[in-house]
Amino acid sequence: MSTNPTLSTVTNTFTQLGDRKRKACDQESAGDYERPRPKKARLKPGVLCGILGLPRDAIYEIFSHLDPPDLINLSRTSKLLRKELLDPDITSVWKSSISNIPGLPERPDDLSYPRYAELVFGKACHFCGKQHAGVATSWTARVRACKACADVKFHAVSCDDRPYSKELFSLLPTAPGYKYLGHPEGPDRLKVLMTAALALNQEFRDLEVSARGQWEADKIKEWRAIHAHADRCENWVSEVRNLRRAEKKRVIEARQELVVERVKALGWGEELALIQFTNRRPENLAVVRKACNRILTAQALSNLEQPLTQHMVEVRKRRLFTERMSFLSNRLRLLRDFYTSHMAPGVMYPTTGDFFRIPGVGKLIDSVPSTGPFTQGHLKPILDPYTFRHFMLWWKQDIEVKLRDLISSKRGSGSATDLNLATSLFSCSECSRFLRHPDILTHACASLPFYQEDADFDARIVTLVLQESFWNSNGCIDAVDQSSFSLLIHLLSLANLDWEKATIEDLNKSLFECIPCNDERLGRATMTWDRAMLHYLSPNEPHKHLADSDFYSSVVILDQLETLIIRARMNEERERKLCKDSSQGQMVCLRCMMVEKDFFTLQKHVRTIHQVARPRIGRGLDILVMEDTPPIYRRWPPRTEDGLLSFPVNVTGFWAPLMGHMSNYHL
Questions:
Q1: CA dist., res. 334 & res. 432, Å (int)
Q2: Is the full-model pTM beyond 0.85?
Q3: In terms of domains, do 384 and 455 share one?
Q4: Burial code of 532-546, b = ≥16 C-beta within 10 A, e = fewer?
Q5: Are 415 and 534 in the same domain?
Q6: How many CB atoms within 10 Å of residue 65?
Q7: Same structural domain, 412 and 400
Q8: Domain range holding 362?
Q9: What would you report as the CA-atom Rg of the chain, rounded to the nearest whole angstrom?
Q10: Can you say how many angstroms the Cα of residue 640 is from the centroid of all Cα atoms in its chain?
Q11: For a designed S-S bond to 149, which of 145, 299, 372, 496 qualifies (C-beta 3.0 to 4.6 A apart)?
């Protein structure tokens, strides 16, 4: 079988080179190896150069119909065309081309036609040649400069440093956009083109003293003409910019009309006619304005349908909300005044917002048309005893259903939901209190103002008008978590209560003591069940680091007789503190619903106005105190290190006959 000698030679060569990279050749063959030179791209002959074969009159006629930017671009296509267009004999072509631009000032005497055209219509910086948005023209200096080059070529100079007059100094060529005589740097300082300023200084010094006056007068006359022409150029640029903006605005408005027609075609014509504010119209959407800056094709219009529909849905919702707000505002305020003025003292009532939420009340308010006035006479059917009891029953049952749902969601669908059970315990995330039925129905935090954009109209309007919300709209009320529930079960077990059957009244009969918090100087830490819950579960309390076994063993229950003594002293201390400190929260007289922050003042009010000799504190009695959970009561004497009381408890007075057998006892 024959072999290819060329292929064999190539194979041997690669075998000798081994696995090395091919970038470098072998040492032995380096002298014979030459890198191939890169081939230069073959230039195509200029297509436009053929136009020079035409008669010169025809060439001039063609060129004279071009705009100056076209002539500038044409001069940069080839050397031949550049030479032809920069020929002084072709000045008439440039003059005719410049005259095609309406409103453009005539060429100044200090510039040729090509240079003037390039100054007006060019885009690149004269110093670095870059083209970007920051390039600006200095009409007095006859240059274009970007910001970086302007900072280098133009410097702030003072009139005091110049040898000539202040009038001539004020006419020096300044930086782009720099308004001379009146700039924040002061009338005696200008940011000028340094080459021009230095040349002027040198020219001034080279003159004879006698000739300087005439020279300065000539320069002032020359540069005044330059500044006058610069002002005309700036005005022309401003007019052109305004015309372009107006034209662009006209085109955009025409495209926006197409968008409006598409909105009507989508079925939103009636809603569109009801829009009162310009900024809410669909054609003024940001996505629509962005699309209208380009040619609005059928596909572009189709792509806008989804955002337009979403916007119109939002516009309709906002209009309906505004109409509903206008309809309900005064009626809700009237309902609040009428409702609160007829509330009986000592009874649990819903807030005005929750009262309005009752279907019968809301239906009564909506039944009166907006065309006529709405008065308290329309609300009198609410006072019917049977109707009012029905409203209150609906309100309580509605919240009780929500409470049972909270328990089921936390404990499972099969858990007991009897609200009278001791385990039916709730917590408030706003005030960190444990709550129970029925007090939870009127808990203040549950009705705090809470505005939600996605809520229904009536809920949002109640928040805005009445500064309250529907019950638990803010979600602050919830069934207690697992750790709180476990501690509650433990407290019930200490009280020998069946947690599946025990009620809160059963648990309220017991008091508890925290053994680790015993203090030899302060006494034993005794507390109610709800204070015990906060004491052990609050992140700021000292027992948050305890394990569950230590956690539960640190709390004990007090016996019945000591509980009776401590509870009486707790109530005494509570009343004393209320009379002494006026910052214990709000208190309400349940006989007339008067709200007061000072307990002593409210107590005097009940005695004098309502003729009650000793006002009672509690729901359904005389005074309701919206206070926090009862604090820890320090029982004396303290415990000793071995757990025994430091000395016998001597009981005197009313309790002596009942507790004589407990003169020495242990817990």
A1: 34
A2: no
A3: yes
A4: bbbbbbeeeeebeee
A5: no
A6: 11
A7: yes
A8: 324-477
A9: 47
A10: 58
A11: 145
Select from 383, 358, 372 the least CA-distant residue to 330.
372
- Residue 119: closest CA among 266, 216, 42, 233: 233
Average pLDDT, consecutive stretches of 10 residues, N- to C-terminus, the chain (667 residues): 39 41 48 60 58 80 89 86 84 89 91 92 91 88 92 86 82 76 57 88 86 89 92 93 94 95 95 92 94 93 95 96 96 92 75 94 94 92 92 94 92 81 91 85 88 91 94 93 90 92 88 90 91 81 62 84 90 79 66 71 85 76 70 88 55 48 37
Q: Are 663 and 650 in contact (CB under 8 A)?
A: yes
Query: Which of 639-642's residues contact partners 24+ apart within 8 Å by CB, and which partners?
Result: 639/515, 639/518, 639/524
Are 328 and 435 in a shared domain? Answer: yes
**How far apart are the C-alpha atoms of 370 and 390, rounded to whole Å?**
27
Contact 359, 394 (CB under 8 A): yes
Inside any domain, residue 398:
yes
Helix (H, G, I), strand (E, B) or coil at 212: helix
CA 72 vs CA 77, 145, 449, 543, 647: distances in Å: 9, 19, 69, 86, 112
Clarify whether residues 470 and 543 are in a common domain. Answer: no
Q: What are the two backbone dihedrals, phi and then psi, of residue 389, each rounded to the nearest 5 degrees?
A: -65, -35
- Backbone dihedral region for residue 182 (phi beyond 0: left; psi -120 to 50: alpha; all else: beta): left
Within this chain, do residues 415 and 529 fall inside the same structural domain, yes or no? no
CA 566, distance to chain mean position in Å, is 53
User: How many structural domains does the chain have?
Assistant: 3
User: Is the same domain home to 436 and 401?
Assistant: yes
